[in-house]
């Protein structure tokens, strides 16, 4: 195909250089002679043009992307055909791909990674609103322009995955490094598949590498089906629990636990970016631009100086009103103290020298070994959803737990693979009940209490936000059980809205 460099398509587009190639098409930097501007042209291979199915996919890509007008999507300018060679004309983006940037720099700054994830998510949200699922989200398909802004491109291979599944005639279409579990299994996919793939991209930006490697692409795809992504905080300790929780939910293999749509994801990514920027006190690269686009409610997490750009003359003028400035800064200090920088909507700050442990959204399990083995199982994920407005509750015990012939009931967190937790924080709308906190090592969950469990803490939950110090004797455990032994006076059940484990911040 290199011999095509120098030729003109339809007497208008001069092919200047080949800048990309795939199994279906080749991409060229070209020059639009009529409008005197650079463009990018995707030219379908001649042998593909003779295949009616491939030709239709190519045309469908042009029609699909032509519907989209978004600052973070590479736009379609024109389509045409020259001597039975169909082509699509795109805006030309001067810069590098996100993959190139990761290869060049290794892992990216945390706030910059989140900023790119937000821009890509916003682009995918626009596509999903037009009933278009990308299906091939990867850093190779994200272009970074001269200003550093991300632009999503290449909807072509992605759409062929919908028709052919993961493989066709023994050929793997696209890379499996970012494939969602349902896509790897050949199932129909929707926008949640794009969210999973974007989660893998975010993981790569934060760590500098994809989560799974294997002997071939099928082996990698099956790891996406069967294995959890490595713990991001173990690989990058400075990542906040909020960011880790968002990443976990993006890449949850259970569609019921994964983000249902892009708007919900974007809201949490924006909050995570604000938290990371507030923690560091600075912003880097594209994060600086994205921070200016955050909703006002999210920007309130940021320090005053990061929310407002103050010109030099304004600063000079403010010198004359020092009293007012002090009042403003004092008020700002109160706002920052109230807002905090912890994960999600945490109302009690994490103790000094500790950080919240990131756990999977599906990690909580109700525990009723002396009853029917279920204790409102459908509510269990609420204790880690970072929403104090939702809660898991025990069943109703009018005569108390002991009156039902039970020593207790509870709920435990699977902190896989294991963690040496130093405190456990409970939020509840109705305090007054008593708990014992147990821990158990990796392996099977103990069948009864206390056999197999080690008592590490407990007491009365005498406040809506209660933190218990844990005595693990330096041992890392996988399971942490909140065992409710006595209900509050006059209550027939106990409710827990949030459970958070904390560990020491590494030296």
Automatic annotation (TrEMBL):
What stretches pass through the bilayer?
A: 310-330
Q: Name one Pfam family in it.
A: Pkinase
Start and end residues of each Protein kinase domain: 13-273
Annotated InterPro entries: Kinase-like_dom_sf, Prot_kinase_dom, Protein_kinase_ATP_BS, Ser/Thr_kinase_AS
Task: Return the SMART domains for the record.
Answer: S_TKc (SM00220)
Q: Where do the record's region annotations for Disordered lie?
A: 336-383
Q: Which UniProt keywords are listed?
A: ATP-binding, Kinase, Membrane, Nucleotide-binding, Transferase, Transmembrane, Transmembrane helix
Q: CDD domains of this UniProt entry? A: STKc_PknB_like (cd14014)
Q: Does the keyword Kinase apply?
A: yes
The UniProt record lists the keyword Lyase = no
Q: Where does ATP bind?
A: 42
Q: Which GO terms describe its molecular function?
A: kinase activity
Q: What is this protein called?
A: Protein kinase
- What phylogenetic lineage does the species belong to? Bacteria, Bacillati, Actinomycetota, Thermoleophilia, Solirubrobacterales
